[in-house]
Amino acid sequence: MPLNDQHVRSLLQASKETHAHEIDCDEFNARMAEYAEARAAHRPIPETLAKVVEHERLCANCAEECRALIEILQA
Predict the structure, then answer these.
(1) Interior CA angle at 59 toward 42 and 40, to 5°?
(2) How far apart are alpha carbons 56 and 21 in whole angstroms?
């Protein structure tokens, strides 16, 4: 499947926003419960989860999984 202009722009933007100190999906998943619980309860997100917040912003797959968990916790 060829990439269209929007895909290329999105990839370039994600590359530009990527930093060496980020967490990967495995680490996000390991910390997602704590993060999702805070979000579901509308509590402030602790600074210790800043990298989790950033990963969720950059990774559509992890963001989707986290949204699903938050919905479950709020139900």
Answers:
(1) 15
(2) 15
Report in angstroms the alpha-carbon separations of 64 from 1, 2, 60, 71: 23, 24, 6, 11
Give the end-to-end CA distance of the chain in Å, rounded to a whole number: 38
Q: How many CA atoms lie within 13 A of 1 on its CB side?
A: 4
Q: How confident is the model at residue 4 (pLDDT cuts 50, 70, 90)?
A: confident
Distance CA 28, CA 62 (A): 8
Instruction: Check residue 59 and report its DSSP letter.
Output: -
pTM for the full predicted model: 0.71
